[in-house]
Amino acid sequence: MSTSTAPARRSTALPASPIRLTVGGILRSEWIKLRSLRSTVWAYAVVFALQVAIGLLVVSVTVSNTGETFRGGPGANIPELATLGATAGVIFGQLVVSVLGVLVISGEYSTGQIRSSFAAVPKRLPVLWAKLAVFGVTTFVVSLVSILIAFFVTYPILSNANITADLWDPNVFLKLVGAAGYLALSGMLALGIGAILRSTAGGIAAALGLLLVVPIVFGLIPADWSATISDWLPGNAGTAIYQSSRIFEWWQGLLIMLGWIAVAIAAAATLMRRRDA
Amino acid sequence: MIEAHSLTKKYGSKTAVDQVTFTVRPGLVTGFLGPNGAGKSTTMRMIVGLDRPSGGDVTVNGKLYRDHAAPLHEVGVLLDAKAIHQGRSAYSHLLALGATHGIGAKRVHEVIEMTGLDSVAKKRVGGFSLGMGQRLGIAAAMLGDPSTLILDEPVNGLDPEGVVWVRELVRFLASEGRTVLLSSHLMSEMAQTADHIIVLGKGRVLADAPVKDLVSGATTSSVRAVSPRAAEIARLINSPGVTVTSVDGETLEIVGLTAAAVGDAAAAAGIALHELTPLRGSLEDAYMNLTADAVEYRTGVFDPAAPATSASAHAHAGPIVDDEQAAPQNAPTHAASHAAPTSTEATR
Fold first, then answer.
1. In a domain, A14, yes or no
2. B11 backbone dihedrals φ, ψ, rounded to 5°
3. Which of A3, A20, A67, B294 keeps 20 to 30 A from B203, CA to CA?
4. What local confidence, expressed as pLDDT, does residue B334 receive?
């Protein structure tokens, strides 16, 4: 192989191109990817429907069953009761956003799309950060809108039972925001799990297993340490963000949730840098 | 410009790419040729950082691919047509890909038009045929107006019209001064498309040369002569530097003389020739010879330095049986049946 006598390379010969890989561009790209899939639209529609429908169901059933006792007396926790319906759907919504969170990344690996994504962003990790940001923010906004609408549609039923709360009462508003935040965070945790496992089936099984199966397993073990571990699981500790918990303050629940996400994402990022795409 | 230095990729104990060094220059179409498992795709993936090299490095325009400010403007890559989410439309896929670099809808429409995908651009990729998937992959590769194009098996699954289109496209792109690297299993296609060929076998570079040199260097031009008195001709022209191989009793393959010299010798002796055909090796023959040597080299049975082609030809040169001459009447039939040499016969 003789030494090169090639002409000057083309990229320097042309006028400076405005084309640049930017953080804003990667975020825009992930937003286009998220909104251009049917699964996204369906999943968010289901989150909205669950939030409103289960809110109405829970409030109607509770009010009619408990009657007078449900009415807020002097000692009643009015904000808790007022947000009961609006946040009742979260326990189901978290399953949907977890599935979607896994799909956001595993869908790229299972279809080969990840190679196109990494060819455009060869440093790779910006893709993961952008996915987390776009999916997290979108899930938070969709969840918050759904929860607020659930709050408003359940409001008339609750006020008939003398449970009236001002939306702008911090105790009410922060619980609703916290519930939306919990949904977004559980979706981001699932995204991290999906990025580690790279498979849709495995990712969904692991993410839902962590929420549904693992707590039951620890619940079956009659030991204090087992109960403590169970308390610290994301599906349990995380609920403290939007519900009164006898164990954790809301901010403690938030920190535990963030810790889980940090561990999952750190593992995902390490593997993403190392593995061949 | 792509420069690979001692590029190596190991999967466990298996070495897929073994200390490969080559340069792909601008303004030329460079072909990557090799049998399955030769390491073509792995090498291409390492160029754009999808696979991490186990050793060595490869740069594009002087830098590692991932260190460029606008990777899509440096390299457009088609690795396989299915590197696309099946649930997204072609338009959305290209828009999302371009968005990373601030490439907008205008350019997306341009590449869709360029690749003839207008009618299906809004349809989901899952329903695409292999050929449409290839066109979409090429559209994606062109999106950033890259100075280097890497196309892995770009004509795979395309109809004949599409094959011609890809050939003309890559030739045009090279004529603009871009670097074009493409792989193909279709050696005839490569002969028509590439200027320069890098042959890979078992992860090593077996040849790195212009197409013309590769064909003339790795194959020997020969002359086929058919005559009822073939044995006499063989004796007439036998001299140092001339190799005569008897294919059957009436057919000779002669290396080292031109067709004219063979014809003159036969005419001078008054021997009728029923066929006289100059045989040129094709790229496919060159490729077969090279990769066959690679297999021998890897198994360690033969010394790779030995000039195996002429040695084996000499071994077959001798036995011409005289009683074959006794059937001159059959000769025209024989000549007719051998009148259309195929490329596989040419290097025998």
1. no
2. -110, 100
3. A3
4. 39
Q: Which residue of A lies nearest to B77 if distances are taken between CA atoms?
A: A119
pLDDT of residue B212: 81
Average pLDDT of chain B, as a whole number = 82
- For residue B330, CA distances in Å to A187, A192, B268, B326, B337 come to 83, 79, 23, 10, 11
CA distance A35 to A31: 6
Compare CB distances from A111 to B61, B86, B101 and report the shortest one's residue: B86
- Fold category of B2-210 in CATH: Rossmann fold (3.40.50)
Q: Closest CB to B99: pick one of A4, A6, A28.
A: A28
B197 touches chain A (CB under 8 A): no
Is this complex's ipTM strictly greater than 0.90? no
| Per-residue confidence (pLDDT) for residue A136, from 0 to 100 | 98
Angle at Cα B83 formed by Cα B79 and Cα B89, nearest 5°? 130
pLDDT at A191 over 60: yes
Q: What is the DSSP letter of A15?
A: P
Domain boundaries, chain B: 2-210, 219-346
The tally of domains found in chain A comes to 1
Residue-range definition of the domain harbouring residue A128: 22-274
CB-based contact A191:A128 (threshold 8 Å): no
- Are the C-beta atoms of residues A111 and B85 closer than 8 Å to each other? yes
What percent of chain B lies above the pLDDT cut of 70? 80
